Amino acid sequence: MAALLAARSATRLAVLAGDLQPAPLRHAQRHWLHSTLSAASMKVYPVPCLKDNYAYVLVDETTGQAAVVDPITPARVAEKVRELGVDVQYLLTTHHHWDHAGGNQEFTQLYPHLRAVVGGDDRIGALTQKISDGATLTIGTIQVRAIATPCHTTGSISYYCTHGTDEHAVFTGDTLFLAGCGRFFEGTAVEMHASLGKLAQLPHETKVYCGHEYTSSNLAFAQYVEPGNQEIARRIKWGQENAVTVPGTIGEELQTNPFLRTGEVSVQQATGETDAMAVMGKLREMKNAF
Question: How many domains, in total, are found in the chain?
């Protein structure tokens, strides 16, 4: 086993400073991956970046194929890829902001065999495949569907990933945070309400992988809005015990995220509004000043 590991490492990226190019996996290595990894499933590996960002490595354990999401620190993400020994097929970009797309060019230099750099906005660096709402792609046996979620930026895309009928994950960038949502930089409350509404319709067990570690401050605001919500209190206690809070689930968000609860009387009372769009706008104003 030690010899196999050594051979595999020798053909992968020798990442010291993030400036060497990886070779594609050879046939024997693909067979090793297929025969030694656990039964068919989808795994996601968060990679903390910058001050509070997350990049992700999405892996299909059946084939060893993978995608990376928002690799803003390319060397660190490449090191995780090397550690996992996977074959990166796609770079998925949630939106054009520098702290998400700013590493694309360097990452594609490290992985020139990438099938595509995918995103929904022409402002994304190194973009080779523009994707629209409802479009799909596959990573091994993982199915990926683009969900257009404009507001934080006009071209924001969330990536809904499924493996069979039992495994669900969504990469939401800066649209949906755990217990919060992104600022309305290029959109309106109406657009954010619609975008979050799409995500709210995903299966409750869907794991949510967002772009930043903002959960603690978001939960503090959520408790301010709904002080009697015991699920928020539970999540706050849990968050105090976990430095990395991703992933959450859609079901948890529906119970604790005020931006997904604009129809709840308790949230409406906190904002002084009853129309869902007005509640959304008021919540964002309140959170900006919180």
Answer: 1
According to DSSP, residue 212 is labeled B
Q: Is 100 a catalytic residue?
A: yes
Order of all β-strands in the sheet with 129-130: 42-49, 53-60, 65-69, 87-92, 116-119, 129-130
Report the predicted TM-score, pTM, of the whole model to 2 decimal places. 0.86
Tokens of 264: 């709840």
Q: Known catalytic residue: 95?
A: yes
Of the candidates 70, 87, 96, 100, the residue annotated as catalytic is 100
Range of the domain at 159: 2-289
Q: Is 174 a catalytic residue?
A: yes
Q: What is the CATH number of the domain that holds 25?
A: 3.60.15.10
Q: Is 152 considered catalytic here? A: yes
Tokens of 70: 């928002």
- Buried b or exposed e, range 94-130, using 16+ CB within 10 angstroms: bbbbebbbbbbebbbebbeebebbbbbbeebbbbeeb
31 has catalytic annotation: no
Residue-wise pLDDT for 203-222, tens only, equals: 999 999 999 999 999 999 99
Supply angle C-alpha 118, 119, 120, rounded to 5.
145
Give the model confidence (pLDDT) of 43-95 as tens digits.
Answer: 999 999 999 999 999 999 999 999 999 999 999 999 999 999 999 999 999 99
